[in-house]
Design goal:
Elements lengths: L7 E5 L4 H12 L3 E6 L2 H14 L5 E5 L5 H15 L4 E4 L15 H29 L2 E6 L12 H21 L4 E8 L5 H10 L4 H10 L9 H12 L10 E4 L8
Parallel strand pairs: 1-2, 1-4, 2-3, 4-5, 5-6, 6-7
Helix pairs in contact: 1-8, 3-4, 4-5, 6-7
Bound molecules: nicotinamide-adenine-dinucleotide.
């Protein structure tokens, strides 16, 4: 018996990065998956590769935008239709926005970051929690960031949205713990995904690898994190084992956020 046998889990932003790494980890532990992303081509590649690697996993894909309420309703209803229940939601889709000092930050971009990172996570909980209430069981992992527990220079919209994710996580825990629904957030530090590669390109367009090496120096482990390292923690929080950890924001950052 594997940990996630007969369990169905929705992953938003599943086509690459942290979402895809979690999909692999959960499929390897027996989960049936709904993979949701707005990058249709990449999503279809991801699903094909997973199906090849984990032939017993049932996988459906939903192309959609996590900041669009109707698309969120659709990923919830299609999951219920395919698997009869929703055991877990990995509310992961998010964007970094553009880096700029606070008073110069592009307001249209600010609103876009809030729409995806904050409203997308809210809609996910709003339309999945009622299904979990019927089952009297559910696990939700929202993706915050170290930027959800600390300030990050030149990333005001991202920091605002990720603090909000951490706050909404506490509320969901308070309001729905009585229904058997456990909600936590993760706060990754710098993890080597396409999003972070892009951030290093912004910091040093001529030599992004130098920006990465410089950044790694300040981490207690002297390296960046790997998506697989985040996926292991996510799998724990989505499992039965995490039954009394509720409303927490768990840093996965090599200890960096402890540094003064
Ligand atoms: P990524 O850019 O590598 O992958 C994100 C995926 O989400 C992509 O497949 C993208 O198409 C999809 N996506 C983005 N917006 C979407 C939307 N509105 N609807 C549907 N799909 C959407 O990013 P990542 O590094 O894997 O980040 C995943 C999450 O982790 C984000 O919420 C991010 O803020 C958070 N995070 C990442 C790091 C890190 O170091 N990589 C650190 C802290 C937090």
């Amino acid at each position: 018996m594997k940990t996630f046998d007969q369990k169905s889990i929705i992953i938003t932003g599943a086509a690459m990065g942290l979402g895809l790494a979690a999909a692999k980890e959960l499929a390897s532990q027996g989960a049936n998956l709904t993979l949701m992303d707005f990058n249709e081509a990449q999503l279809s590649d991801a699903a094909d590769n997973l199906t090849r690697e984990f032939s017993s996993a049932k996988i459906i894909t939903v192309v959609g935008d996590a900041s669009n309420e109707d698309d969120v309703k659709r990923y919830a209803s299609e999951t219920e239709k395919a698997f009869g229940r929703i055991d877990g939601l990995y509310n992961n889709a998010g964007i970094e926005g553009k880096q700029a000092p606070m008073i110069e930050y592009d307001i249209k971009m600010f609103k876009k970051v809030i729409d995806i990172n904050l409203m997308g996570v809210y809609y996910g909980m709003r339309y999945v929690i009622p299904v979990m209430q019927k089952q009297k069981y559910g696990r939700i992992v929202n993706v915050a960031s170290v930027g959800g527990i600390r300030g990050v220079l030149n990333q005001v919209a991202y920091v605002a949205s990720k603090h909000a994710v951490s706050g909404m996580t506490k509320n969901a825990a308070l309001e729905y713990g009585k229904d058997g629904i456990i909600t936590n957030a993760i706060a990754p530090g710098a993890i080597l995904t396409p999003m972070v590669a892009e951030a290093f390109r912004e910091v040093n367009p001529d030599d992004p690898k130098a920006a990465e090496a410089e950044y790694a120096k300040r981490n207690p482990t002297r390296r960046l994190g790997l998506p697989e390292e985040v996926a292991k923690v996510v799998a724990f929080l989505l499992s039965e084992a995490a039954s009394y950890v509720n409303g927490q924001t768990i840093a996965i950052d090599g200890g960096e956020s402890n540094m003064y």
